[in-house]
Amino acid sequence: MTAAPAPRPAESAESLAYRSALGVIRGIEPRIADAIGAEIADQRESLKLIASENYASPATLLAMGNWLSDKYAEGTVGHRFYAGCRNVDTVESLAAEHARELFGAAHAYVQPHSGIDANLVAFWSVLAQRVEAPALDRAAVRNVNDLTEEDWAALRRALGDQRMLGMSLDAGGHLTHGFRPNISGKMFEQRSYGTDPETGLLDYDAVRAAAREFRPLILVAGYSAYPRRVNFRIMREIADEVGATLMVDMAHFAGLVAGKVFTGDFDPVPHAQIVTTTTHKSLRGPRGGMVLCDDSLAEYVDRGCPMVLGGPLPHVMAAKAVALAEARQPAFQDYAQRITDNAQSLAEGLLRRGARLVTGGTDNHIVLLDVAGYGLTGRQAESALLDAGIVTNRNSVPRDPNGAWYTSGVRLGTPALTTRGVGAEGMDEVAELIHTVLSRTAPAAAASGKPSKAKYVTEDGVAREVAQRAADLMAKHPLYPEIDLG
Ligand code: PLP
């Protein structure tokens, strides 16, 4: 007698959803179905240390792929320029409610399509509150359309004549904080504050001195490559002293604020008048942006669309609501704490092996490795690590001699690996793999024979061996174990 075949285990809801969605897409454009399938397979295999990336939950991803996408909904909840928005109103109010509750904010605006857009909404809200509104009052009109041509020209000049103080790029600030290649640098006269040359830490006295001298309209705090916490109580004191509005861009560390790792002086929400964020980094939501603010700015922030944004993306707001609901669960606090614990384990593992870290360590999700200690540029280190299956990105270090393209640093971040369940022991293995590759890689000469900042050579077999070890580590922590890729 032959035994009956063992019943197949029931497929999970996530797995069924994945297969059905791909099947439907495959019927129209199979190459897109293949690219989606290949992307999840790549993500499953690679050891991802990109500090700004994460893995959103299947529930969050599924909330994005649906019919809400087909709706125009310019305006705000209950005040739309289009009919038939009742379901979008439900979605937007829920996302905003979750955001307010999660962060303890007076007001939340969940429409921005990205972090850049959230920052633009914030800048123009402050300009509208502090430059435009007083001009309308002086002219005794309620609307810009009612200004005389002369008053309108004067207002436009005044809007273009404001100042912003933010963190310098090589100290870890972001391009959208007033730098020339970005629209913010074309809008504002900008000055930046850096970090202490000895310790690499933010020097609040230097920020205060710069603020007193420059007297900005907006003081921006927040970063994308600074491995430490910022004391927002002190930043607010500085802003108040010079009459600036404090804006915090918490795009990178929003998950640590949501998960109550950053509390008290290190939680920006009670201190800043306006806080912006992305939703897809440590917060682990869909790709998008968000603005939180106090009551005084709420009416201006709500004008984001059409002030600087196009129609909202209702399907992405739905996914924001799902991700924010997830972040309100107690498990998220545990996740956030593990992000910083893992960053500290990674930092300790690297330091123990002799690596150089900017500021000597971390207290957030970022470890900034100064690869000059290995005799490499950031570009060489990033490429050598990628050959060995380790995905990172090169980054400037303070006063970087190699500039913003080649750089001298590699930025490492732990939100994504933490989502996969990697812990302290795994992070030590990651430190070992990084150190192995970099200590066995050397710069190579360009074809001309001159030293190159891009070319490098890794000892034979090292990349292959490390890639295998990285794959073994990732196999122990599968991404979306509930999804059978088939
Ligand atoms: N602000 C900060 C601090 C960031 O790190 C980033 C992205 O890296 C942004 C804003 C821009 O976000 P997005 O790419 O969603 O526009």
From TrEMBL:
GO biological process: glycine biosynthetic process from serine; methylation; tetrahydrofolate interconversion
Coiled-coil blocks: none
Pfam short name (any one): SHMT
Site (Plays an important role in substrate specificity): 280
One annotated GO molecular function: glycine hydroxymethyltransferase activity
Chemical reaction(s) catalysed: (6R)-5,10-methylene-5,6,7,8-tetrahydrofolate + glycine + H2O = (6S)-5,6,7,8-tetrahydrofolate + L-serine
Residues bearing the modification N6-(pyridoxal phosphate)lysine: 281
Pathway: One-carbon metabolism; tetrahydrofolate interconversion; Amino-acid biosynthesis; glycine biosynthesis; glycine from L-serine: step 1/1
Annotated InterPro entries: PyrdxlP-dep_Trfase (IPR015424), PyrdxlP-dep_Trfase_major (IPR015421), PyrdxlP-dep_Trfase_small (IPR015422), Ser_HO-MeTrfase (IPR001085), Ser_HO-MeTrfase-like (IPR049943), Ser_HO-MeTrfase_PLP_BS (IPR019798), SHMT-like_dom (IPR039429)
Location(s) in or outside the cell: Cytoplasm
PROSITE patterns registered for this protein in UniProt: SHMT
Cofactor(s) recorded in Swiss-Prot or TrEMBL: pyridoxal 5'-phosphate
UniProtKB keywords: Amino-acid biosynthesis, Cytoplasm, Methyltransferase, One-carbon metabolism, Pyridoxal phosphate, Transferase
Serine hydroxymethyltransferase-like domain span: 29-130, 161-434
Positions bound to (6S)-5,6,7,8-tetrahydrofolate: 169, 173-175
Gene3D superfamilies to which the protein is assigned, alphabetical: Aspartate Aminotransferase, domain 1, Type I PLP-dependent aspartate aminotransferase-like (Major domain)
EC identifiers of the protein: 2.1.2.1
Entry keyword annotation includes Amino-acid biosynthesis: yes
GO cellular component, as recorded: cytosol
The UniProt record lists the keyword Amino-acid biosynthesis: yes
Summary of the function given for this chain in its UniProt record: Catalyzes the reversible interconversion of serine and glycine with tetrahydrofolate (THF) serving as the one-carbon carrier. This reaction serves as the major source of one-carbon groups required for the biosynthesis of purines, thymidylate, methionine, and other important biomolecules. Also exhibits THF-independent aldolase activity toward beta-hydroxyamino acids, producing glycine and aldehydes, via a retro-aldol mechanism.
Similarity comment text for this entry: Belongs to the SHMT family.
Quaternary structure and interacting proteins, as annotated: Homodimer.
Record HAMAP family: SHMT
Protein name: Serine hydroxymethyltransferase
Name of the coding gene: glyA
